[in-house]
C-alpha cells in the first residue's frame, strides 16, 4: 500500500482476511450455497402500473417439462401479516406498480423457469396511474417524519425577513434523478422450507444476500407467521448492497412462499439486473428549492431548503434530504421541509447516504453560487459560516474539523490555481476546479451482542454482523485482536448467521462503531471473568455498551471534496481528471479497506454527478434504461487520479472506539464538488443532475460551433 | 429461454443451406448480442447454426491493394492488426471505441455489422415495438429518445444502428461479401443497412440465409489524407454513441480537396454525409465552411421530443473533427 498517506494512520494495514477466498472463487455467496435438489424460480411481473389481475392462465407453463410449481395470488400460501404491502406478495389481485410480483414459476433449471414464465398469459383491469414527480408541492403530503426518525420540517428565527433583507441571495431549484443502487451481486435468496408436524413448527432456512441477517429474520417472522427462532438466515459473503440489502424485499417473501410448494426442495432465486430496477428499492428523485441569504461579507443570515420527493402509494419511505442543511452552517434564520408525492411507483428505500447525498448536492451547489455572488473563494465562504455548535440541536460537536479538511486539501490539491469560470483551457478542453463540504451522521447503534470463546488456543469472536464487501471480516478481527492483546491470526471471527448473537444492520455507516464497541465490551467481559490465561471453552458475552457522554454531543463526520473537471468545448463531454477527499472520520481501523470505502464513496458521488439516471417512462410506469449498458455508472476509464486521506482526530466523544462511519461520507460532497468544477471549467451551471453533454450544449447555446474566442463553450 | 437446436456448420455453403431451409434458424457467431436476446425473449429461434469454426478468420491483401477481412475476425484482433492500424487507423479507432475489451474479444466483424438496435423498447418484450413485433406500434416515439434517430426515421421506428465499426467502414467505402443460396454477391456497407420506412423489422437488405463471409476494404486513402473517428458519449468507455463522426479530409492550398464523412448514433443505419462532403469540396478550410457543411447535412434532421440536442451536438462534433483534421485545433484557432 505504497500509495497510502504517511500521516494519519491509526490502524495497521491488514490485508483482507476474506480476500483469498474471493479471488479464488471459493467464497460462497448466497446463490452458490450447495443445497440438495435445488429448484429455480423465475418471477411473473405486472406489466401495468396500476390495476388488477383479471385473469391469469398458467396452464401452458404448468404443462412444460421441468416445471415444479406455478405460484399466483390464487394459490399462494396466506401470509400472517400483510400490513406492510411490500411484503404482501401474491396475496391479492391488486397491482400497485409495474413490475410488481404477481407470481412465479419454479422449475428444475433457470432456463425452464424463465421459458415457462413467458408462457403465462395475464389479463388486467387497468386503472390510471401517476408515476412522475410533480414539480410543485400542491396537494403533496407532509410526512410525520423522514427516514432515520428526523422531523419532516424545522424552523428557527424568521427566514422570510432574512430573505427579504439579504444583501446577497441565492434562490435556485436543484434536482436529482431517480437512481438505483446496483450492487454487483444481485439480490439473491435460497429458501428451504420444512413443514414440520403442521402444528406451527414449520421452519425456514434462508441463504440470503443481505446487510443484516437478524434484520431479515426479525422482519420476515411476523409476515410468515413463524417465531423468529424458526427462521435461520445465513449470509457470510455479500457482493455489495449500498443500502438496497438493508432490509428484506419482496423477493425474500416470494421465495419463502414458493418453497412451501416444492415439498421441501430448496428454491433458488437471483434477480436479473432488469428486475433490480423495480423490486429492491432506489433513491427517490428530488426537487430542492434552496434559498440562501447572506450579508455583504458572505455571512449567512438565512437558510431555507424545501424538498419535493416521492414514495410509493403502498408504502412510505421519506428520504431525509434536507437534514444535513439543518446542521451544516451557522445562520440565525433557518427552515427546512419535505413534501411527499405518493405515486404508482416501486418502493424507494435506502441508497448510500440517503438524504445527505442528494441534499448536500443541492446545498453545496448553492453555496458555490453564493460564493460567486459574494465574490468570495468557496472555501472562505464556508470558513466564515462554520458553526461553533450544532445549530440544529444546540449541542457541542463531538469533533468537527471541517476547516482543517479544507486547508489540508487546498494545499495538496493546488486549489490556489483555480481561475475564473471558463478561463482555463487545455486544447479543446475547458478545465476547472470545484470544492464541496461533506458530512454524515456518526451513528452508534445499540442492540448488538458479541460472544468471545476460547477454542483450540484461539479466540472465537461470534457476532451476527455482515460484511457487504466493506472489510468487516478484517476490521472486526483487528479490533478483537487489539482488545485481546493477540495477533489477528489468534482470532477467528464468525459472522453472517442468525445462529450467532444479535447484531444491528450494516447501515448508516454504523457497523464498525456499533459492532466494534460491542466486541471490545465482550473482550472486557471475557477478561474480567477468565483473565489472561483462559481455560479451553471459556466464553463471555456483552451487549453494545452505553456511551454516557454521547448524548451531550452532536456526532458527525466531515470532509472536504476537491474535483478537477474537463469539459469538451465542442461536444460538452465531461471527464473528471482529479479528485481528492480529505476526511475527518475519527479513528481508522484498517487503512487499506478504509481508503477503499472513502474512494468508493467518492466514485459513487462522481457517478451521481455525471451519469446515473433511472429514466421513468410516464406512460408505462417502468424504468426503461434498466441494464448496465443503458444505466451508466463509471467505468475504469472514468476514474483517473482519485485519492482519499484523513485527519488524525480520534473521536472518543462519539463512541468508546473513537471511530466514526466511513461508508457513506465519500459519496456526500462529491456530486457538488464535480458540479462546481464543471461550472468553473465551462461557465455553465447545470442544476439538474446528472450533468450530461446534452444539457451543457443546450445551455451554452451562444454560438453555432463552440466559441473558440471566449474560452467558454 | 425458449428451447432450440444447435448445429455447428463446417463449410460456408453448408451453413447457408442449413439456415436457408429453416425459417426459424439463425447464425450464431460471437453471440454477444444474440445470446442476450435469447434470454430477454426478443428472438426465439428454433435452430442456432454456429459459424464460429468456419474458415473466415483471416485478414489478407486483395489484388487491388485493399484488404479482405474474414467475417469471423474478432473485433479486438482487427483493431490490433498491423495493416489496419497503419493503413486504416480510423477503423481501428472506431473498433476500439465500441463495447468493452471482453466483448470485443468475442464479437466478430460480421456480427458487429449485424448487431441490432439498443432501443430500450426493442429490448423489452413488455412494450410494443414495430421492429420486434411488426404492427404493434413504436413505444420510443413519445418516450425515452436520447439515443434515437434524427435522420431518416419513420413514423414506425426511430431506432438507431449502434455500431461504431460500421460507421468507419461506410466512410471507407467498404463492401461486404455475401454468400446466399444463389451464390456470392457484393454489397457496399453503406447499402447493407436499411432505413426503417414501413418495415423496421428489416435491419438490412440481406435475405434469410444470407451469410456475410468478409468485409472488403478498398486501397487505403493514401498520402495527403488525414482521418479520425470521434465518439461522443456520457462516459469515457463502454457507452453507445450519442453522436459519432468518422471523417477523412485531404487539404490542398488551404482548401478541402476531398472528404469522407459518416455519422453514427443518428440514424437506422450508418449515415454517409454526402451533402456535407459536397459542401466541403473546394471550400476554404475553417470553422465557417465546416459549419456550413454540417448544416447542409443536418438540414434534413427531424429530431423528436427528447433528442433535439443531437442536431447541435452533431453539428458541433463535425466541426470539431474537421478542425482537428485540418490542423486547426487548440490555440491556433
Instruction: Give me the side-by-side strand order of the main sheet of chain B.
Output: 4-5-8-6-7
Q: What string gives the helices and strands of chain B in order?
A: EHEHEEEHHHHHHEEHEEEEEHHH
How far apart, in Å, are the first and last alpha carbons of chain A?
41 Å
CATH topology descriptor of the domain at 225-328 in chain B: Enolase-like, domain 1
Helix content of chain B: 25-40%
Mean pLDDT of chain A: 95
Strand-residue fraction of chain B? 15-25%
Note the main sheet of chain A.
7 strands, mixed
Main sheet makeup of chain B: 5 strands, antiparallel
Question: What fraction strand of chain A?
Answer: 15-25%
At the fourth level of CATH, the homologous superfamily of the domain at 415-444 and 547-713 in chain A is: Aldehyde oxidase/xanthine dehydrogenase, molybdopterin binding domain
CATH architecture annotation name of the domain at 225-328 in chain B: 2-Layer Sandwich
Overall pLDDT of chain B: 97
* Estimated radius of gyration of chain A: 26 Å
The total count of helices of chain B amounts to: 12
> Any idea of the CATH class of the domain at 225-328 in chain B?
Alpha Beta
Oligomer: heterodimer
Amino acid at each position: 500500500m505504497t500509495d497510502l498517506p504517511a500521516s494519519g494512520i491509526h490502524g495497521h494495514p491488514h490485508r483482507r482476511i476474506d480476500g483469498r477466498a474471493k479471488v479464488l472463487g471459493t467464497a460462497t455467496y448466497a446463490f452458490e450455497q450447495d443445497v440438495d435438489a435445488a429448484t429455480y424460480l423465475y418471477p411473473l411481473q405486472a406489466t401495468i402500473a396500476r390495476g388488477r389481475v383479471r385473469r391469469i392462465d398458467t396452464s401452458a407453463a404448468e404443462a412444460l417439462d421441468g416445471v415444479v410449481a406455478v405460484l399466483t395470488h390464487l394459490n399462494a400460501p396466506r401470509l400472517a401479516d400483510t400490513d406492510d404491502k411490500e411484503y404482501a406478495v401474491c396475496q391479492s389481485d391488486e397491482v400497485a406498480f409495474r413490475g410488481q410480483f404477481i407470481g412465479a414459476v419454479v422449475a428444475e433449471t433457470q432456463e425452464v423457469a424463465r421459458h415457462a414464465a413467458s408462457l403465462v398469459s395475464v389479463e388486467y383491469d387497468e386503472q390510471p396511474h401517476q408515476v412522475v414527480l410533480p414539480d410543485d408541492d400542491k396537494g403533496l403530503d407532509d410526512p410525520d417524519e423522514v427516514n432515520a426518525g428526523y422531523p419532516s420540517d424545522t424552523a428557527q428565527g424568521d427566514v422570510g425577513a432574512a430573505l427579504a433583507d439579504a444583501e446577497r441571495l441565492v434562490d435556485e431549484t436543484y434536482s436529482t434523478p431517480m437512481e438505483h443502487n446496483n450492487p454487483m451481486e444481485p439480490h439473491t435468496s435460497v429458501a428451504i422450507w420444512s413443514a414440520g408436524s403442521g402444528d406451527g413448527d414449520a421452519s425456514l432456512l434462508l441463504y440470503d444476500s443481505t446487510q443484516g441477517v437478524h434484520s431479515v429474520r426479525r422482519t420476515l417472522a411476523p409476515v410468515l407467521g413463524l417465531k423468529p427462532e424458526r427462521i435461520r438466515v445465513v449470509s457470510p459473503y455479500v457482493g455489495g448492497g449500498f443500502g438496497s440489502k438493508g432490509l428484506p424485499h419482496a423477493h425474500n417473501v416470494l421465495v419463502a412462499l414458493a418453497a412451501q410448494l416444492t415439498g421441501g426442495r430448496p428454491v433458488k432465486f437471483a434477480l436479473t439486473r432488469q428486475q433490480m430496477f423495480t423490486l429492491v428499492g432506489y433513491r427517490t428523485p428530488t426537487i430542492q428549492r434552496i434559498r440562501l441569504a447572506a450579508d455583504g461579507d458572505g455571512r449567512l443570515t438565512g437558510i431555507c431548503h424545501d424538498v419535493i420527493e416521492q414514495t410509493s402509494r403502498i408504502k412510505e419511505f421519506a428520504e431525509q434530504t434536507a437534514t444535513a442543511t439543518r446542521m451544516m452552517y451557522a445562520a440565525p434564520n433557518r427552515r427546512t421541509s419535505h413534501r411527499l408525492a405518493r405515486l404508482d411507483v416501486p418502493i424507494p428505500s435506502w441508497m448510500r447516504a440517503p438524504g445527505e447525498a442528494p441534499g448536500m448536492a443541492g446545498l453545496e451547489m448553492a453555496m458555490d453560487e453564493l460564493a460567486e455572488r459574494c465574490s468570495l473563494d468557496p472555501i472562505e465562504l464556508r470558513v466564515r459560516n462554520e458553526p461553533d455548535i450544532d445549530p440544529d440541536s444546540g449541542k457541542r460537536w463531538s469533533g468537527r474539523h471541517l476547516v482543517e479538511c479544507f486547508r489540508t486539501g487546498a494545499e495538496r490539491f493546488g486549489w490556489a490555481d483555480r481561475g475564473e469560470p471558463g478561463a482555463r483551457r487545455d486544447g479543446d478542453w475547458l478545465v476547472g476546479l470545484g470544492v464541496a463540504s461533506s458530512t454524515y451522521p456518526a451513528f452508534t447503534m445499540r442492540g448488538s451482542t458479541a460472544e468471545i470463546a476460547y477454542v483450540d488456543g484461539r479466540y472465537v469472536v461470534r457476532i451476527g454482523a455482515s460484511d457487504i464487501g466493506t472489510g468487516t471480516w478484517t476490521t472486526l478481527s483487528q479490533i478483537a485482536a487489539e482488545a485481546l492483546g493477540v495477533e489477528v491470526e489468534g482470532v477467528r471471527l464468525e459472522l453472517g448467521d442468525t445462529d450467532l448473537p444479535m447484531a444491528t444492520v450494516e447501515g448508516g455507516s454504523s457497523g464498525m462503531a456499533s459492532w466494534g464497541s460491542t466486541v471490545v465490551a465482550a473482550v472486557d467481559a471475557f477478561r474480567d471473568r477468565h483473565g489472561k490465561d483462559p481455560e479451553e471453552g471459556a466464553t463471555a458475552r456483552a451487549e453494545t455498551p452505553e456511551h454516557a457522554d454521547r448524548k451531550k454531543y452532536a456526532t458527525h463526520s466531515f470532509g472536504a471534496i476537491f474535483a478537477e473537471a474537463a469539459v469538451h468545448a465542442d461536444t460538452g463531454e465531461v471527464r473528471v481528471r482529479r479528485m481528492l477527499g480529505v476526511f475527518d472520520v475519527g479513528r481508522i481501523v484498517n487503512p487499506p479497506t478504509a481508503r477503499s470505502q472513502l474512494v468508493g464513496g467518492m466514485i459513487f458521488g462522481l457517478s451521481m454527478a455525471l451519469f446515473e439516471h433511472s429514466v421513468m417512462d410516464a406512460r408505462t410506469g417502468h424504468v426503461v434504461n434498466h441494464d448496465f449498458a443503458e444505466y451508466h455508472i463509471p467505468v475504469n476509464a472514468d476514474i483517473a487520479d482519485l485519492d482519499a486521506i484523513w485527519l488524525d482526530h480520534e473521536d472518543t466523544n462519539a463512541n468508546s472506539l473513537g471511530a466514526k462511519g466511513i461508508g457513506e461520507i465519500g459519496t456526500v460532497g462529491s456530486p457538488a464538488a464535480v458540479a462546481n468544477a464543471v461550472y468553473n471549467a465551462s461557465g455553465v451551471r447545470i442544476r439538474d443532475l446528472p450533468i450530461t453533454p446534452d444539457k451543457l450544449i443546450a445551455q451554452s447555446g451562444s454560438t453555432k460551433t463552440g466559441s473558440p474566442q471566449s474560452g467558454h463553450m | 429461454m425458449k428451447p432450440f437446436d444447435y448445429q455447428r456448420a463446417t463449410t460456408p455453403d453448408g451453413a447457408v443451406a442449413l439456415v436457408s431451409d429453416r425459417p426459424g434458424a439463425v447464425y450464431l457467431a460471437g453471440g454477444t448480442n444474440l445470446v442476450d436476446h435469447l434470454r430477454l425473449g426478443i428472438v426465439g429461434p428454433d435452430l442456432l447454426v454456429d459459424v464460429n469454426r468456419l474458415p473466415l478468420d483471416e485478414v489478407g491483401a486483395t489484388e487491388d491493394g485493399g484488404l479482405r477481412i474474414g467475417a469471423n475476425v474478432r473485433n479486438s484482433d482487427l483493431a490490433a492488426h498491423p495493416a489496419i492500424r497503419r493503413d486504416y487507423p480510423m477503423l481501428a479507432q472506431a473498433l476500439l471505441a465500441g463495447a468493452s475489451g471482453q466483448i470485443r474479444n468475442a464479437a466478430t466483424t460480421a456480427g458487429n455489422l449485424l448487431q441490432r438496435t439498443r432501443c430500450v423498447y426493442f429490448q423489452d418484450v413488455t412494450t410494443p415495438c414495430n421492429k420486434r413485433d411488426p404492427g404493434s406500434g413504436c413505444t420510443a416515439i413519445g418516450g425515452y429518445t436520447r439515443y434515437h434517430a434524427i435522420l431518416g426515421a419513420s413514423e414506425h421506428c426511430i431506432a438507431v444502428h449502434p455500431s461504431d465499426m460500421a460507421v468507419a467502414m461506410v466512410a471507407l467505402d467498404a463492401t461486404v461479401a455475401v454468400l446466399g443460396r444463389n451464390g456470392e454477391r457484393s454489397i457496399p456497407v453503406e447499402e447493407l443497412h436499411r432505413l426503417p420506412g414501413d418495415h423496421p423489422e428489416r435491419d438490412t437488405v440481406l435475405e434469410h440465409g444470407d451469410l456475410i463471409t468478409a468485409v472488403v476494404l478498398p486501397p487505403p486513402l493514401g498520402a495527403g489524407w488525414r482521418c479520425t473517428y470521434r465518439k461522443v458519449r456520457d462516459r469515457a468507455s463502454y457507452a453507445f454513441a450519442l453522436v459519432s463522426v468518422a471523417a477523412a479530409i485531404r487539404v490542398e492550398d488551404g482548401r478541402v480537396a476531398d472528404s469522407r464523412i459518416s455519422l453514427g448514433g443518428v440514424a437506422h443505419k450508418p449515415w454517409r454525409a454526402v451533402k456535407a462532403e459536397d459542401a466541403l469540396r473546394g471550400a476554404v478550410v475553417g470553422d465557417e465552411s465546416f459549419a456550413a457543411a454540417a448544416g447542409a447535412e443536418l438540414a434534413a434532421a427531424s429530431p423528436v421530443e427528447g433528442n433535439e440536442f443531437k442536431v447541435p451536438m452533431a453539428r458541433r462534433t463535425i466541426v470539431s473533427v474537421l478542425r482537428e483534421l485540418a490542423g486547426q485545433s487548440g490555440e491556433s484557432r
